[in-house]
Amino acid sequence: xxxxxxxxxxxxxxxxxxxxxxxxxDEDTQDVTGLNVKDDAELRxxxxxxxxxxxxxxxxxxxxxxxxxxxxxxxxxxxxWFEQLKGVPNHVLSTDVPEVxxxxxxxxxxxxxxxxxxxxxxxxxxxxxxxxxKTGKVNEFELPAGxxxxxxxxxxxxxxxxxxxxxxxxxxxxxxxxxxEVGEAIADRLQExxxxxxxxxxxxARERGIILAxxxxxxxxxxxxxxxxxxxxxxxxxxxxxxxxNDYEPGRAQASFDKQYVRDWLxxxxxxxxxxxxxxxxxxxxxxxTRARYVEAYERLTGQTFQA
Length: 308
Hints:
This protein is α+β, with helices and mostly antiparallel strands. It is built from seven helices and 18 strands. Helix 2 (70-84) runs parallel beside helix 7 (284-302), helix 4 crosses helix 5 and helix 6 packs antiparallel against helix 7. It starts with 10 loop residues before the first strand and ends in a 6-residue tail after the last helix.
């Protein structure tokens, strides 16, 4: 589905992903929302404004229906988590952004991203469960027999995937393959940082009655200092699987704080969608329930009331 990116004074649109739009400072603009691009070495080395839209994707497709305030919720949640993870360098430079994208955008360091998704699995579910049922393994990890959907994995597994081309599925890679891709020392650091992020967030979420089942994290190198830096979003319902601890019951699929309503409706007879061709518009009820689930995740995790 095509869309028209927002026109932002002083910034030039350079890329649109499924749910995010990227902008760089316009070369003719000396000052961008209070950040002097010409004088600040870090910004001169490269900055990008990441704008989270209200678009939603499912089954590798961008839907024609948006979820109101989703971009703001995900941006505010990422910013809150970056604050909780102060021991991990992140890409945020400023939240002083133009009014037209207030609340849904961050000005960030431009990173050279690693060609890998750093995934931690603390519970067996999703594609990890499918792999286990087929081979008894998740990535290269042999797991005990008798595990079920929702079984806790102790310790949590660092289970990266390679980044596939657009429209293709990411494929799990072994630690040996990761070493070959980025070098052993960098692979060690990516694993260490990823597990630290998961373990820190899992503890925080558990104190709030939420289980962090798994998460996907992306890292890159800061083009100015060469430091391994946390990029993109972090610990949102789009990049992580959050479950309600009060409703947790191993042996069945758990209700999650994400786009589960959207996925379930698309798979239902009511949608009339067979997985091919254009995705249908979502009914108002599905949109409202999905938005409410995102808001609930934000408010329960942060302890703050979401301000639209």
